[in-house]
Amino acid sequence: MEKAQGYKRYIKENGVHFVPVWRIIGFSGANMAVNLYMGLTMIMSFYLNGYVGMAVILASSFSTIMRLWDGVTDPLVGFLVDKVGGRVGKTRLCLVAGGILLFVNSFLMFNVTDRLPKGAIRPVFFIVFTLIYYIGYTFLNISNHVGNVCLTNDPSQRPILSIVGTVLVRIMRAVMQMVTASLAIKYGSMRSAELFHEYWLIVAVIATIGIVIAYISIRPKDIPYFSETAAQEDEDSKEKVKFSDYLTVLKKNRPLQMMIIARATDQFANTCKTSAITLVLYGIVVGNYKLSGGWTMYTTIIGLVMMTLGVGTIGRKLGLKKAMQFSSWGVIVLDTIAIIIWLVCDPKTLNLPGYVNGYGQAFNGFTLFTVLLFIISVVGGGFQMIASSIVPPMIADVNDYEATRSGKYIPGMVGTLFSFLDKLISAFGPTLVGVGFAIIGFADEFPDVSTPYSFKLLVIGLVFYYGFELVGAIFNIIAMKFYDLTPEKMKEVEEQLNTMRIKE
């Protein structure tokens, strides 16, 4: 069967296998879909506050609780995928299951809840389908971890996985921020039900297209030869894949431990950048929320160039570890400067061609604040993109290392162990945001586009937008000191893994 699929044409020497670049580009559609559905949860607190009837802290805590639930489902789904997924294709199983569950349940959550009678039925209905939604999210998220392993292990291609995936995801995030800002202006509030109906439709259509393309792209590589060892092919040996492997992997896989520390702290910072924080900085401090969409697009495009150079040059020539260290130092320096700029300059003078500033004045040349923040945002954002985009190929390396260490190719379990602890640590970001708002007087409702400016709001915005990201970068540097999967080490790993693959 595998021979009929022509899998040998993807194999080089010394255990290296590859794919045409178009398949790498196509498979990144899965990562795009994951991030689009994540975007729904990032603005979910406004829906909870406006239609499900939850106060600010409870609405923020709901995201934390659901993220913890998402983490709980990770080990269960990961074990299931590695146990039975080889028969149908581990990655394709995740793509199909995740795509269907996310599409159906997100529709019910954001298109039906607000049409139900007010009262207890709304939160009960929303919670039930949100629980199922996150199971779908787990499946789709695992598809990236498993797919990246079997797609390619070529050291010249694994960085491309990140370059392509991050470019697509970042551009889509910028586009969706423009969509969010436009819909908020169109409907007059982030708590509008019509806003969520329209936003959901856009997300669901684009994400589904991305999942279909990813399925087509991964199909010839999603076979046992690229995702299991020879021992695992034997029916008697399959029993060796057991749930207790999670504890063994966590205890003995040092590179995975370091990746969990680095990723979890970064993700914690990322979950603190909720839509409410973005609204505070641009809708209240700057005074024109619509400007945030254009600003994100401008800075993202140029930042992506930096990211591409960072991963492509540093990642290929010096190794992924060096790229992570380099980018993390950049984040620390640039985020510190950004905080100073927001405090010293006048944010209301921020402007771009085609927009008005916080004083309602049309664009009449670039101001000092605009120029300084633009430079810092582009360079700092580029460094942050490098750090985040390096994670997928590093996890793929960790999976290969684990296969040589334990004799078992268990990308589902390794990937979900990574994501479980990542989510466990980072889950408290939205709750902390809610607590921060409550402390400064927003316990019942989130700040909205009509909320007047206050210095307290500026401080909250800076702490959650830049402060925790800076702390996350510090943890990255510490973790990389103990991460030993250098290019030389990975060459040894791939050669050893080649001797363990399924033979004809």
Low-confidence stretches: none
Strand content: under 5%
**SSE topology string:** HHHHHHHHHHHHHHHHHHHH
Q: Provide the residue-averaged pLDDT.
A: 85
Q: Give the total of beta strands.
A: 0
Structural class: mainly alpha
Radius of gyration using CA atoms only? 23 Å
CATH topology: Growth Hormone, Chain: A
CATH superfamily: MFS general substrate transporter like domains
Main sheet characteristics? none
Specify the oligomeric state. single chain
The number of distinct helices, counting runs of at least 4 residues, comes to: 20
Summarize it.
This protein is mainly α.
Explained architecture:
There is one protein chain. The chain is mainly α. It has one domain: MFS general substrate transporter like domains (Growth Hormone, Chain: A), CATH 1.20.1250. It has 20 helices and no strands. The termini are close together.
What is the secondary structure topology, with strand pairs?
Elements: H1 21-42, H2 44-52, H3 56-84, H4 90-111, H5 121-151, H6 158-187, H7 193-218, H8 224-227, H9 230-233, H10 245-252, H11 254-272, H12 275-286, H13 290-317, H14 320-344, H15 368-389, H16 391-406, H17 411-426, H18 429-439, H19 455-480, H20 487-500
Helix pairs in contact: 1-5, 1-6, 1-7, 2-3, 3-5, 3-17, 3-18, 4-5, 4-7, 5-16, 5-17, 6-7, 6-13, 6-16, 11-16, 11-17, 11-18, 11-19, 12-19, 13-14, 13-15, 14-15, 14-19, 16-17, 16-20
